[in-house]
Specification:
The chain is 84% helix and 0% strand. It has helices spanning 5-26, 31-59, 63-88, 97-121. Helix 2 runs parallel beside helix 4 and helix 3 (63-88) packs antiparallel against helix 4 (97-121). The longest helix has 29 residues, at 31-59.
Length: 122
């Protein structure tokens, strides 16, 4: 199965998380704490995404451009959430699923921020 670069990145992130979690558990961090940390990281990235999105929306010259950005963002959010659910499913409902989900959402959100910031620079 051919995967696009984004799918390969997501799979790599999931693998790295699987490898890093045992190391963090050695430091007496509970899975619940790791889930909370992953969620907090996502919240920070999501706040930056919203700030960047709003900055671009204000900069766009007309209603049509703004509507196209809104459509693009809605489609991207659906993709991000579906991809994160797919990665989290690798834990088969285990306690690590939220960490995988939030880490994937964070990684994809950071990539989207870079994409949007490139629009700001244009």
């Amino acid at each position: 199965m051919n995967q696009n670069p984004l799918q390969k990145t997501v799979r790599t992130v999931a693998l790295l998380i699987w490898l890093v979690i045992p190391v963090t558990q050695i430091h007496a961090q509970t899975q619940a704490a790791m889930n909370a940390e992953a969620r907090a990281d996502f919240k920070k990235a999501d706040a930056e995404l919203n700030k960047t999105y709003e900055a671009i929306l204000v900069k766009l010259p007309d209603a049509q451009s703004k509507e196209l950005l809104k459509q693009s963002q809605r489609a991207w959010l659906a993709f991000r959430d579906a991809e994160a659910a797919l990665v989290a499913d690798q834990a088969h409902g285990g306690t690590m699923a939220p960490t995988l989900r939030y880490a994937t959402m964070t990684e994809l959100t950071q990539q989207r921020i870079k994409q949007l910031k490139s629009h700001l620079e244009e």
